[in-house]
Design brief:
heterodimer, A: five-stranded antiparallel β-sheet, four-stranded antiparallel β-sheet, B: about 35% helix
Chain lengths: ~300, ~160
């Protein structure tokens, strides 16, 4: 039987380092290498004919890249290769970032949940990635490393366009960092797809809202996915919220500002007009849910 | 291209095989080990026909590179029956007419096994969500779901 993968014209090799240092060395040793975590998006691209690298560097044997935990300062770490199922199952993470947990739980089937990582969701750079808006509203930071050293960049600066990132050659994502949310702060993520499971976002909306003891919004971050080449923030909605209570008037401002901030495409999942409308509705609902969570966390720490 | 030697445990047996570095685990199971229960439907992780249990977790074997199996424990549909005695899931699928052409069935059986391993008493909704990563183009899903619920009930009684 002729194997389907027999079309390449160069040697390919597979390695599975067990430490970050070993991975850095392997990546700097090969001119054409590629790291993989869950590879749930990348393997289908390869099978569809995308050129293969010379070296496949599997990151899933590096314990640090699978860890999820919180340090003494309250900083949460999610290893770049930790599968979505592990993120969803982590109760501490769910308590601190329920919206990020929701976004993680929406990716694919159980089969995909057990493989796909948040690190891959970010570095794959799909405009419709579910977890990226949630990572951005929670001020996530990405830790990249290479033989040139380690750098920490805001998640919001990683994706530069569909399928493209600010990663440098030889660099890979080690982990994602999130500070524990301030008091009276909640987040939420809502997504629209044409069915209840197993589809790609037509629109995704993430919000993080802080309120004071009187219910007045003190901080707001709103990020929309799948409505532009990269995730878009909605500063006009954020400005409309801060200093005001969450009521019908402010929510109406959020809705119109979110619709306005979109730059969507027409495709089989939705028209431009539909995406704009849904973005407004989901942004409004995500703000409301995040604000309810913020109020329930009355002065308490997550 | 040099082939890679992989040692792992498949359906309880220590197993060695040779594979290409970029071969899918599905192709290795089928072409190297002749375990042809897992099927390729889509090859992109959408249909679940290639489902296996990989270190205790439900996975699509089309989305795993074969060398990743080194040291891992794998259950395929061939590991469900004990000799000629079918697993309760298999027996319930037969009795409940939960298959027609049968191409999706190994994937459904494995996904159902993974679901019941974690949740022995699922609701119908939980079964439907648990099997959302598996597609059937013949029967529709009602007979599959009711067969899984029946098997779950039998497994609980015999536990």
């Amino acid at each position: 039987m002729m194997p389907r993968h027999g079309r390449k014209n160069h040697l390919v090799n597979y390695v599975a380092p067990t430490s970050v240092e070993e991975a850095v060395e392997l990546l700097s040793s090969a001119a054409d290498s590629r790291v993989l975590a869950g590879a749930t998006d990348w393997i289908p691209q390869l099978r569809a004919g995308r050129p293969e690298p010379e070296l496949l560097v599997d990151l899933k044997r590096i314990p640090r890249l699978l860890e999820i935990g919180r340090d003494g300062d309250g900083t949460w770490t999610i290893g770049a290769a930790a599968p979505a199922a592990a993120v969803v199952a982590n109760e501490g993470l769910r308590a601190a970032f329920p919206g990020l947990t929701e976004a993680s739980s929406l990716i694919g089937s159980d089969q995909i949940q057990n493989r796909a990582s948040l690190g891959g969701n970010l570095c794959n750079a799909s405009p419709a990635a579910d977890t990226v808006p949630s990572m951005i509203v929670n001020e996530g930071r990405a830790v990249f490393t290479s033989s040139g050293g380690t750098r920490v960049v805001p998640v919001a600066e990683v994706v530069t366009g569909p399928g493209s990132t600010s990663l440098q050659p030889g660099e890979f994502l080690v982990e994602l960092l999130f500070d524990s949310p301030p008091a009276r702060t909640g987040d939420a993520y809502l997504r629209f797809i044409p069915r209840t499971e197993m589809d790609i976002a037509v629109v995704g909306a993430a919000a993080r809202i802080s309120v004071d003891e009187n219910g007045v919004c003190t901080a707001a971050t709103i990020a929309l996915g799948a409505v532009a080449p990269t995730v878009v923030r909605v500063p006009a909605a954020e400005e409309a919220l801060v200093g005001s209570p969450i009521n019908d008037d402010t929510l109406a401002s959020v809705e119109s500002a979110a619709s306005e901030a979109c730059n969507p495409i027409d495709d089989k999942r939705g028209t431009i007009a539909f995406r704009r409308q849904v973005a407004g509705v989901l942004a409004k609902r995500a703000v409301l849910l995040a604000a309810q969570r913020a109020q329930q966390r009355d002065g308490g720490q997550a | 291209m040099s082939r890679i030697q992989v040692t792992c445990t498949i359906n309880g047996d220590e197993t060695e095989f040779l594979c290409d570095p970029d071969q899918s685990l599905l192709d290795a199971l089928r072409d190297e080990l002749l375990l042809t229960g897992a099927k390729e439907g889509c090859g992109t992780g959408d249909c679940g026909a290639c489902s296996i249990i990989f270190d205790g977790k439900l996975n699509c074997s089309c989305l795993i590179f074969a060398p990743e199996a080194e040291g891992r424990t794998i259950t395929t549909v061939e590991g469900l029956a004990i000799g000629s005695e079918l697993h309760p899931l298999q027996q319930c699928f037969l009795e409940g007419a939960a298959l027609q052409c049968g191409v999706c069935t190994p994937g459904f059986l494995i996904a159902a096994k993974a679901l019941l391993d974690e949740n022995p008493d699922p609701t119908e909704t939980e079964v439907r969500y648990g099997l959302a990563g598996n597609l059937c183009r013949c029967t529709g899903y009602d007979k599959i779901v009711s067969s899984v619920l029946e098997a779950a009930s039998q497994l609980r009684e015999s536990a």
